[in-house]
């Protein structure tokens, strides 16, 4: 049976809610994943951010004197986004390999609804990890972040759609789990660390500046920091949101064209 013949069917936004419901159940039933998501922001903040903060003086960021901990905490948010992109890759790869993606499309779920539904797992993980990070900011009394941090995180949900959509695109290109695992290992860490997550934006060797300027995460971190430090960079914020819209549209287009089968492939 070729599910491509059924892709024109639609059950409306009920399709998105069905996928969302399945992803919410998957999120709360994934105990090992929840433990890992709990530890990640704690380890990065307590040992990396606070460790470097103790050896780094306050510095000027766009006319505002801030601590390194305040600056790098937003970098942890960037790491959280890439982590949740890996969840999108994993979840959609399982869907594709075991024929679940085909079944969903056969039953009237449209590509855009599928993207929204499959983004729920990463969004829940993102909010959970950011909540832990927010509590750490309060406990360690990191000044300048507590008030506007929640607003920036809500804006970050839209940016996260960029990464979850990109993860779905990548999963559609994988032929097996080995390709998926290699991709995760080789791509996610460079994305997080070539962006100005833990080093001062605009500084560093030339190669790092070049890599940062072609990294979408760079513009997202700049946008989030501009919100938190009350120096809104409208151009950067709009650029980040437009990138999300473009990738979501591209993902929906590719999902509409991809060849799907109900046969499991290992």
From TrEMBL:
Keywords: Cell membrane, Membrane, Transmembrane, Transmembrane helix, Transport
Coiled-coil stretches noted in the UniProt entry, renumbered to this chain: none
GO molecular function, one term: ABC-type transporter activity
Annotated Gene Ontology cellular component terms: ATP-binding cassette (ABC) transporter complex
Protein name: Transport permease protein
InterPro entries noted in UniProt: ABC2_TM, ABC2_TM_bact-type, ABC_2_transport, Nod_factor_ABC_transporter
Domain of life, per lineage: Bacteria
Subcellular location: Cell membrane; Membrane
Signal sequence coordinates: none
């Amino acid at each position: 049976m070729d599910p491509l013949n059924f892709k024109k069917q639609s059950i409306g936004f009920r399709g998105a809610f069905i996928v969302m419901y399945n992803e919410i159940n998957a999120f709360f039933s994934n105990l090992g994943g929840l433990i890992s998501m709990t530890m990640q922001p704690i380890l990065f903040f307590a040992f990396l951010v606070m460790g470097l903060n103790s050896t780094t003086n306050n510095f000027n960021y766009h006319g505002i004197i801030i601590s390194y901990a305040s600056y790098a905490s937003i970098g942890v948010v960037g790491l959280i986004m890439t982590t949740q992109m890996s969840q999108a890759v994993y979840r959609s790869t399982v869907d594709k390999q075991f024929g679940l993606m085909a079944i969903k499309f056969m039953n009237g779920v449209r590509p855009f609804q599928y993207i929204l539904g499959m983004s729920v797992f990463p969004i829940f993980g993102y909010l959970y990890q950011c909540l832990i990070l927010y509590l750490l900011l309060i406990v360690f009394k990191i000044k300048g972040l507590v008030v506007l941090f929640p607003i920036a995180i809500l804006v970050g949900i839209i940016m996260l759609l960029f990464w979850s959509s990109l993860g779905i695109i990548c999963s559609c290109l994988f032929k097996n789990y080995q390709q998926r695992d290699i991709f995760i290992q080789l791509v996610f860490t460079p994305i997080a660390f070539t962006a100005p997550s833990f080093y001062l934006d605009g500084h560093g060797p030339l190669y790092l500046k070049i890599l940062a300027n072609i990294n979408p995460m760079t513009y997202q971190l700049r946008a989030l920091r501009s919100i938190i430090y009350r120096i809104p960079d409208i151009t950067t914020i709009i650029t980040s949101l437009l990138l999300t819209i473009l990738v979501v549209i591209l993902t929906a287009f590719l999902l509409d064209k991809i060849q799907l089968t109900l046969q499991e492939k290992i």
